[in-house]
Each structure stands twice: as C-alpha cells, then as structure tokens.
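Title: Comparing notes on inverse folding

I've been comparing how different people in this forum approach sequence design from structure. To keep things fair, I'm posting one structure and asking everyone to reply with a full sequence. Here's the target:
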C-alpha cells in the first residue's frame, strides 16, 4: 500500500482543496466501491485504507453505460470530461464553489468536481451533453438562447443543468423560488437577470 503522502502529492489536479476533499470524502467512497473483507480487515488493523491504481468503474450517463478504468480518486467531472469525451460541463473552480460542473445524479444536483466517480456507480447521471434531442435543444437550453442568458458561457452548462433540475422539481416556480433554486451557481459575467428570465421562460414546458 502506498503511503498516504504519495497519494495526496500525486501531480495534477490537486491543490489544497483536493487534498482536504479526498481526506474527508475519498475514503468512504473507496470503501463503498471496493467493499471486501480484505479492505475491512486492513482498515481494522491500520486505519482507513488508501487505495491507489486504476479500478473498473461503470457509470450510467445520459442513459448509457460508460465503462472506465480510473483511479478511485478521480472526480465525476474529470472522469467524464477526460475519459468519456463528455465535455459539456466545465471545470472552473474545481472546488465546489461555482456550480459550472453541475450534473444531476438520481434527480439531485451535484457539483461533479467534488463528487468521486466511483461513488456514483449505479446511479443515473445526467449532464448537459444529454439534454438536447438531436438538433432540438432542450426547452431550457432554448430559453437561454432566446433570452441571451450568457456572456462568456463558462457558467452556462451548470446553470442550464441546475435550471432543468429546478423545473423538474418545481415546474412553475416563482421568481424567488427560481433564485433560490439556482443559488448554488455563480455567473462571473453577471448575467443573473437574463438567466432568471430564461428559467421563468422555460417553466411549465420542461420535460421530465
Ligand atoms: S467547477 Fe465544480 S463547483 Fe466550480
Ligand atoms: S456568462 Fe460568463 S461566467 Fe456566466
């Protein structure tokens, strides 16, 4: 077993937030996915196990099975962007602060940059890539176009997904409900007014 420091110092993708995130979230996810008497016995003897190396991970994404071989520490966002060519959702803050990476997992929005891929096996994952029906945009995507609800666009995939989740949960929200439903997402360009316009325009027409 590799020492803990080797695990957290692996280049990439890490920073202080990743380190603390993995310390708190990683072990439970790993234990869930790699459940075995061996791991339990090891943990009983030496404390929480740190598992390195690639493992098979199967995800259900936008209704399709995606088989990956990745390290247990890989986030859902990185797994889909780097290994499954699903690049619609963006990596912006990479620390659960901006919402650009928002995906829907079993009906609930998650920050995919702060969710381990291995933890969401067996769940239904939806990304912005799966919203359109061929060349026909999802009503929420169309509403963003119609209201010009974006500037640079980095926040847009996360806002679109969060809006879809909001409207599936609350098909006819008030403006205050829409604000609350989208308050986990940040637009640095300040297009909040247009984004809310898009949400209100799409309400009542969102597919389940
Ligand atoms: S990239 Fe995930 S919350 Fe900002
Ligand atoms: S459109 Fe630029 S961050 Fe929202």
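Reply #1:
Here's my take.
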């Amino acid at each position: 077993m590799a020492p803990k420091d080797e695990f957290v110092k692996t280049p990439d993708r890490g920073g202080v937030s990743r380190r603390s995130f993995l310390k708190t979230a990683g072990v439970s996810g790993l234990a869930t996915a790699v459940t075995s008497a061996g791991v339990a016995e090891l943990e009983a003897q030496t404390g929480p196990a740190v598992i390195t190396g690639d493992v098979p991970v199967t995800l259900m994404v936008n209704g399709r099975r995606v088989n990956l071989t990745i390290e247990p520490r890989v986030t859902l966002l990185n797994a889909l962007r780097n290994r499954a060519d699903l690049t619609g959702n963006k990596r912006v803050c990479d620390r659960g602060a901006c919402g650009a990476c928002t995906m829907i997992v079993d009906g609930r929005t998650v920050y995919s940059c702060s969710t381990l891929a291995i933890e969401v096996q067996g769940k239904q994952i939806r990304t912005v890539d799966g919203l359109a029906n061929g060349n026909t945009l999802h009503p929420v995507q169309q509403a963003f176009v119609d209201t010009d609800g974006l500037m640079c666009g980095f926040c847009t995939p996360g806002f679109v997904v969060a809006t879809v989740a909001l409207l599936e949960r609350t098909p006819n929200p008030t403006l205050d409900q829409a604000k609350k439903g989208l308050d986990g997402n940040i637009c640095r360009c300040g297009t909040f007014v247009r984004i809310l316009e898009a949400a209100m325009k799409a309400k009542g027409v969102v597919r389940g």
